[in-house]
Amino acid sequence: MAKHFLVSFKTCPWVQRAAIVLREKGVAFELRHIDRDNRPDWFLAISPHKKVPVLSIDNKVSLFESNAIAEYLDETIEPRLHPDDPVQRAINRAWTDFLPTFSEMVTGQAYADDEVAYKDSIAKIPPAFEKLEGALKTQGPFFNGSKYSLVDAAYAPFLQRYFYLDRVKPLGVIEKFPRVKAWADALLKRPSTHSFPEAEFEQLYRLNVKLRKKYLSQFIADQAVAAE
User: Domain 4-76 carries which CATH code?
Assistant: First the structure.
């Protein structure tokens, strides 16, 4: 059996996406964390873009970019997470292509420098959820209905972070989109979503936001940093 190790920063959502796919397929893997500000030479040697995620296979091949990793894993390891129907598969790929835009729209407030930028950022959240509300199947609980897919694995980390940010400065937007809310709840209950215990990971994420010293940082108590 091939040996997999996945390189990550502790709170990177793109690596989390790859880890979710590995877990859904029952693949044993090592999750190796590196320091964002001190990236080791061995990592720079295997990461052409100097970014995470990188998935090393048998210490011979290193794959990079989360979408490429997810597609590779789905093509080579059962069970397949993409739909069998080619039309539905194309639709799913189109929605994973929307993911970078969605992530910026839904979690961009974590990077806003001031109140004006923050308000501009949170104004993008309802349109993002509205797009997904129309795309989700009514029967749920996942994007395609009863079967978990690569779309679910892709969106889970960013929906998780929406909830984390909403608990820093509550907006209550997702409650206006019942299909999205039910989908997000189902994804967060899925064991594959989590690399850490949920409370521990939320604390790590809040610390990360605090240390950015952006607008939202002021709403995170100093003791949250001290506790780390």
Answer: 3.40.30.10
Residue indicated by tokens 């939202």: 216
- The class (CATH top level) of 86-219 is mainly alpha
pTM of the entire predicted model: 0.94
- Amino acid letter at 226? A
Report the amino acid identity of residue 153: A
Neighbour tally for 187: CB within 10 Å: 22
Instruction: Give Cβ neighbours of residue 181 (< 8 Å, ≥ 6 apart).
Output: 174, 175
| Per-position DSSP letters for 66-132, written without gaps between them | HHHHHHHHHHHSSSP-S-SSHHHHHHHHHHHHTHHHHHHHHHGGGG--SHHHHHHHHTTHHHHHHHH
For the residues 169-174, what does the mean pLDDT come to? 96
Instruction: Say what the pLDDT of residue 209 is.
Output: 95
Query: Which 8-state DSSP code applies to residue 142?
Result: B
Judge contact between 27 and 77, C-beta under 8 A.
yes
What gap in Å lies between CA 131 and CA 13, rounded to an integer? 21
Q: Which residues pair with 57 in a beta bridge?
A: 4, 61
CA distance 41 to 81: 34
Please, how many CA atoms are within 13 Å of residue 149, restricted to the half-sphere of its CB?
25
Spatial neighbors of 154 by CB under 8 A, at least 6 apart, are 17, 66, 67, 70, 96, 99
Domain boundaries, the chain: 4-76, 86-219
